[in-house]
Amino acid sequence: MVFGIESIAGKPALASLNITARSVAVNRIARRGAEARQNAAAEAVRTYAKSLAADHTRAYDEASAVAAKLDLNPPDEPSAEAREEQTRLRKLSGRAFDQAFLNYMIKNHQTDIQNFEDQVKARNGETSKMAERQLPMLKKHLEIAQSLKSGAAQ
């Protein structure tokens, strides 16, 4: 999903423009953070959402800069799966929202961490460096979501 690089005509290219998909994904999470601040029941979930929004906005800016450096244009829309999840979350509020939001953040961050670790191992220039810089943030977000789900937000 995120950062596979291949060479096309001697120029680095991202397979399926995956880095740009990631930049949309982090921006999507920032927007979801704003929704969570409105729909969450637990103050801890609202605080987590605020942190997500700030951190992922910075990650989006970095991903956009890397994409621009590689002469790529990010897609403007999130994936169909992400749109479905946004629609589902918008219909929830209170504790039901908290649990669904945290479950999605856990699943999303686990997937992203695996993809970023794979990219770091691939040693593909700028995208691997960016993945390495962003991994601690992703791991922190996963740990917080897991902690909140296990009881702190109950």
Structural overview:
- Strands 1-2 form a two-stranded antiparallel ribbon.
- A hairpin with a 2-residue loop joins β1 and β2 (about 10-15).
- With about 150 residues, the protein is mostly helical.
- The chain has helices at about 20-40, 45-70, 80-90, 95-120, 125-150; strands spanning about 5-10, 10-15.
- α1 runs antiparallel to α2 (about 45-70), α2 (about 45-70) runs antiparallel to α5 and α4 runs antiparallel to α5 (about 125-150).
- The protein has a single domain, classed as Ferritin.
Features:
154 residues; mainly alpha; two-stranded antiparallel ribbon; 5% strand; globular
| Rg | 16 Å
Largest sheet: 2 strands, antiparallel
Architecture (CATH level 2) name: Up-down Bundle
Uncertain runs with pLDDT below 50, 5 residues or more? 1-17
Structural class by helix and strand composition: mainly alpha
Ends apart, CA distance between termini? 32 Å
The dominant shape is globular
How much of the sequence is in beta strands? Answer: 5-15%
- Domain module tally: 1
